[in-house]
Backbone:
């Protein structure tokens, strides 16, 4: 299953680590095992060979998995991370997923389930020539791989992520790539339904219309307990339609508060796809802005020729808490405001004009520019300081001093 793949295991527990090492090697993987965070950091940052995945316990003797992942993110895009955590660390694991990590699994876990989650991260899936759903970043491509692998199975899927991240598009893509693509795809937005029970189970409801197709339940965390119980029964009676559900990152809190059925959670989350926030994928924010501009500008501002480089830079630096919906809303407003022949930062972010006291000094701007170039050079060279120094045309010691100054070391 994992033939030839190179995997880094970061686990301090001798029994757990030994068991994982033995099984991964039986599956054909080449495994490097580290028991401390600081040893793993150097090996992952400057690998001798490409690392296909990192399996990392969140609790480590000299730090934690979150610290390891975030430190790696400062200089490059890390390999796919599969975090191992106890029940008490789920909130931290979800926070990591929101930051761009790939997946997590809770202890105790079945080895078969573990290998399945791992294989979804590292084994390439064959995908037809469809346009991107989320963007062009490595994180978006990783989600595309998970989507393609989910489409090749028939198990329920849970898509998790914040608002405006295209969870409905992901559900539709899974359906379109699956063997059920000729059958109906029926969607229920549970945030808008006054009677979810009827919308899902009633005559003319989602299951009734879908037949052998796919039922997409968006906002599953909003269901009350009676409807949750009925949906759990639907899994037990094996209704013909496949279920894909979507929610935010709050299901564990709802389960702990007794507001969401843990049994339904485990039924619907046979496959989980975590969608990183747009703020963690700046290249995707720029890509989406450009795609929407091509679509909307001819209709709303025919005289505009494009988006200025400064505006694209501002889009790259914005956090986008509202996801793709915020990108579209800001663009629509910007198209109406634009006075020149290109979209400017003040068109997209008019609030910046009202806060002159936030203007960076030249020294601050110079430091920000230097930090951006250093990160780009380290990313391009895989964290090799010597090679990055050559690209930047500065001495290795100078680069090291600047990395310490900007917190990149």
Residues:
């Amino acid at each position: 299953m994992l033939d030839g793949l190179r995997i880094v295991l970061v686990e301090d527990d001798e029994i757990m680590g030994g068991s994982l090492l033995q099984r991964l090697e039986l599956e054909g993987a080449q495994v490097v095992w580290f028991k401390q965070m600081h040893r793993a950091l150097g090996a992952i940052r400057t690998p001798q060979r490409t690392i296909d995945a990192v399996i990392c316990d969140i609790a480590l003797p000299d730090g934690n998995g979150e610290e390891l992942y975030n430190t790696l993110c400062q200089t490059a895009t890390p390999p796919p991370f599969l975090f191992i955590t106890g029940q008490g660390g789920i909130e931290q694991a979800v926070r990591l997923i929101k930051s761009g990590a790939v997946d997590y699994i809770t202890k105790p876990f079945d080895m078969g389930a573990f290998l399945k989650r791992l294989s979804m991260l590292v084994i390439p899936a064959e995908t037809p020539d469809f346009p991107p759903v989320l963007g062009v970043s490595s994180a978006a491509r990783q989600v595309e791989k998970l989507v393609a692998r989910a489409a090749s199975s028939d198990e329920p899927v849970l898509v998790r992520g914040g608002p405006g991240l295209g969870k409905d598009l992901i559900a539709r893509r899974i359906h379109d790539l699956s063997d059920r693509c000729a059958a109906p795809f029926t969607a229920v937005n549970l945030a808008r339904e006054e009677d979810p029970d009827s919308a899902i189970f009633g005559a003319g409801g989602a299951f009734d219309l879908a037949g052998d197709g796919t039922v997409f339940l968006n906002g599953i965390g909003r269901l009350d307990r009676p409807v949750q119980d009925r949906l759990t029964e639907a899994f037990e009676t094996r209704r013909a339609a496949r279920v894909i559900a979507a929610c935010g990152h709050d299901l564990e809190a709802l389960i702990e508060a007794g507001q969401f059925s843990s049994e339904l959670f485990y039924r619907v989350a046979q496959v989980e796809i975590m969608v990183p926030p747009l703020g963690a994928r700046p290249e995707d924010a720029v890509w989406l802005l450009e795609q929407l501009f091509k679509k909307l500008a001819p209709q709303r501002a025919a005289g505009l020729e494009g988006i200025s480089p400064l505006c694209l830079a501002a889009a790259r630096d914005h956090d986008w808490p509202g996801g793709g919906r915020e990108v579209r809303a800001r663009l629509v407003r910007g198209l109406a405001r634009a006075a020149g022949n290109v979209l400017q930062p003040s068109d997209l972010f008019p609030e910046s004009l009202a806060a002159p006291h936030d203007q960076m000094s030249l020294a601050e701007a110079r430091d920000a520019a230097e930090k951006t170039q250093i990160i780009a050079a380290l990313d391009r060279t895989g964290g090799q300081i010597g090679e990055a120094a050559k690209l930047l045309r500065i001495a290795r010691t100078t680069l090291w001093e600047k990395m310490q100054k900007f917190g990149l070391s």
About this structure: The chain has 19 helices and 14 strands. The radius of gyration is 23 Å. The chain has four domains: 6-121, 145-274, 281-358, 362-405. The longest strand covers residues 242-247.
